[in-house]
Amino acid sequence: MSTLKFLAILFASLIALSVVAAVWKPRVSADGKTPLVWVSDNNPARKEQIAAFNDLNPDLALGLDYGNVGVQKIILQSSSGVGPDLFDFSDEQMESYVESGILWDVTEAAQKMGFSGQEAGWPGGVDTYIYQGRQYGFPCNTGSLILIFNKNVFDHFGISYPDDSMTWEEFMELAKRVNSLTNPEGARGRQIFAVTGLNYRNFFESQRGEFFDEDGGLNIVNNRELRKALDMHRDLIFKDKLAPTSVEAKQMSGQGGWGSGSLNQFAAGRYALLISGHWSLIAFGRAYQLQMENLEKRGLTPEDLENPLDRPLRIGAVVYPHFAGREPSYRVGSRVAGINSRSPHREEALRFLQYLASSTYSELLNKGTDYLPGNPKYAGLGAEPGPPDLSRPELQAATVEAMSHGYVHRSSPFLLLGDVIRVMTSQISRLESNPAIPTDDFLKSANKELTKLMRRNLDRNSELKKLFVERFGEQTYKNLR
């Protein structure tokens, strides 16, 4: 079968599916309620969040679909007319959904219904759901990464806890003191790395780094912030030996302890410091509960254990370091709910976005240990402190403080930000496999691959190509190789 014939059959099939779906998909359920389908993860908290929405909207019946998560799946199903009414996305996925025509523009509705990002959103995080000046959803949760420290490890080394005013230079010196390779005497025979979760992006974002210039052109090869971030990533692992290589991390996971992931290894005292989000309390809560139960079975209290590392987890949190002479800077990330532009229930689905900006939803979210609500007005509403050892108020306060210095990476109409992150991740894998490769090589390799992707996008879209030539000239387009 020829390619053209196959595509024609596929296109006809999609049209047929759309017609069938439009006829078959009920607009009203048997009990008279309008059904809404929300594609999200299967977090146990969704049940309570959905129940509260349905109570507030008795004419609607919101249900969860956690089996159809994924950009390609949602785009294909929505294009075929059988997609969900609502679905979650990250800021790095937003461009794909908008350019495919699947995400519904809710700008005017948001202004009328009180969930406009400009009025009900975190100033530094609105660009996680606003694209080229238009709003495409509202956050289910939002936040920035923070620095979490294991108090037991610091007590084991006899070192004072971190504060929230550290520069990166001060952080590196502190990290060397809570690292078994650089302070073996203080480690007392234990293998402990200083930090996990820290990588080039944290260093890059601390400089408020951008992958694109203001016109949407690539900013890779001569990007001083990116170069510095890659160099610091290399030094962290190979020069200062403050974090494990991927191989060493896997070896640590095989040495026992509570669980095998980095969060669980941190909870087990294998790391002193962690760059993560407020949501990590979910994992830490489970670890802490198990540790306390095991201690109780032995008939002991934490005070009975001489070495702090043998005690149940105790943590604290501050914003992570900044560069001397520069304002602190942290990237904001969100899980955003958007509306399928082809849903027959678009208007009804708007009420769900309005609900996400409400005090009711925010209070439910805060009762758990996820990120912050999308509406800063309710940042702490209903937040329960939990076990003192897990210092939830500190994690919450550090996240709120980081959000006050938050930003979102600049986007480009010519290339998806997700493609840039993917390509840079592959370069980091190369760096960790062979740290002797010069930084210039990583930057040039990344730029070459991304330039090819940009040229492909332009060649597939004449309007996009026209815009590129208007901004950069015909010769620049020809030079894209």
In the predicted model, the low-confidence regions spanning at least 5 consecutive residues are 1-25, 255-260
Q: Largest sheet at a glance?
A: 6 strands, mixed
Radius of gyration over C-alpha positions, nearest whole angstrom? 25 Å
Count the beta strands. Answer: 12
Overall, the morphology is globular
**N- and C-termini, Cα separation:** 33 Å
Class of secondary structure makeup = alpha/beta
Overall average pLDDT: 90
Number of helices: 21
Percent of sequence in beta strands: 5-15%
What level of helicity do the residues show? 40-55%
Structure description:
This protein has helices at residues 3-24, 45-56, 71-79, 91-100, 107-113, 117-120, 151-157, 168-177, 184-187, 200-206, 224-239, 246-253, 262-267, 281-297, 346-356, 359-367, 392-403, 417-433, 439-460, 462-472, 474-478, and strands at 34-39, 60-65, 86-89, 130-131, 134-135, 138-144, 146-150, 193-196, 271-276, 315-318, 330-339, 406-407. The two termini are 33 Å apart. Strands 1, 2, 3, 6, 11 and 12 form a six-stranded mixed sheet that branches. Strands 8-9-7-10 form a four-stranded mixed sheet, with helices on both faces. The model is unreliable at 1-25 and 255-260 (pLDDT under 50). Helix 18 (417-433) packs antiparallel against helix 19 (439-460) and helix 19 (439-460) crosses helix 20. The protein is α/β, with parallel strands linked by helices and 481 residues long.
